[in-house]
Amino acid sequence: MFLSDSHCHLQYYPSGNNLPYNVNDVVSDSIKNNVRCMLSVSVKLDDFKNFKIRSDLRKYIYFSCGVHPLMIDKNINFDVLLKASNSKDIVAIGETGLDYQRNCSSEDMDFQRFSFLKHIKVAKKLKKPIIIHMRNSFEDVYKIVREEGLEECGAIIHCFTGNKYQAKIFLDLGMYISFSGVVTFQNSHEVKSSAKFVPMDRLMIETDSPYLSPVPLRGRMNKPSNLIHIADCVSSIKNIDISVFTTKTTENFFRLFKDIPFHQINL
C-alpha cells in the first residue's frame, strides 16, 4: 500500500527534541505506516527556508511555496514569491485562496483576493499547480478561478467541506478535490456525500496535520501517519477496496504534482 498525503504542514513540528512530536519521528512514523510521499505546504514565504529534517528522510517530502490568506502581510513582495517558487524543490504554489472568517473586513477581503490573483499569476507563469484554501468564500473563489482559468497549471481545493453542487462546479473546471479528517467526523454528512460524488480520477486525501485529526484520534495532534483513517473512511463511503483506493489517489497525486519524480520514491 502506498499513501500520499497531499497536504500537511511539517514545518509545525520542531526539529529538536521538543514534545509532543519531533519532525524526524513524525516522518519516520509516517513511512512505517505506508505514507511514502508528503507535500509539506507553506503558509508563509520562509516556511521552506526554515525547514530542517534528517537528510535520509528528505526524499519523502516535497514542498509548496505561498502565503495563507490569513497570514498575508500587506508589505509582501510578490516578486519574492515568484523567485522562491521557481526553485526545483517547489512543486506547487500555495496554499492561497480566500478565508472570510468572522470579523474579516472588506479591506481584508480585497487584499486576500489581490493576493490570490498574484499566486495564480505565479502558478500559471511557472506551470506549477496551485493549492486553494476556501472558507466561507465559495462564490468569490469560483468567480476568480473561472475567470482566470487554471488549465495550464492545474489546481486542487484542499480540505474540501462543501456540498455536491460546489464540488461539481470545481470538477467542471478541471480541478482536483482533497478530503481531510473532517470527512471522518460523525456529523459531516454533507462532506461524506461530496466524497461519494467526486470521481476517483479527481480525488485526493490529506491530513492537513498537525490539525484536524481524524476519528478515532480527535483531540490529539494530527500526523501524516493518520492518513490511513481517512483512506479507510472515504474508500468505505465509495465502496472501493482500500488497496484500489490508495493506488488511485496516489496516481492522482503524481498526476497533479508532476514535478515530483515518482520513479525516485522508495516503494
UniProtKB/TrEMBL annotation:
Keyword Iron annotated: no
Residues given in the record as a divalent metal cation 2 binding sites: H133, H158
InterPro entries given in the database record: DNase_TatD-rel_CS (IPR018228), Metal_Hydrolase (IPR032466), TatD-like (IPR001130), TatD/YcfH-like (IPR015991)
Entry superkingdom: Bacteria
Binding site for a divalent metal cation 1: H7, H9, E95, D208
Entries under Pfam families matching the protein: TatD_DNase
A single GO molecular function term of this UniProt record: hydrolase activity, acting on ester bonds
Record CDD domains: TatD_DNAse
Keyword annotations: Hydrolase, Metal-binding
Classification via PANTHER family: D-AMINOACYL-TRNA DEACYLASE
Family: Belongs to the metallo-dependent hydrolases superfamily. TatD-type hydrolase family.
NCBIfam families: YchF/TatD family DNA exonuclease
Name this protein carries in UniProt: DNAse
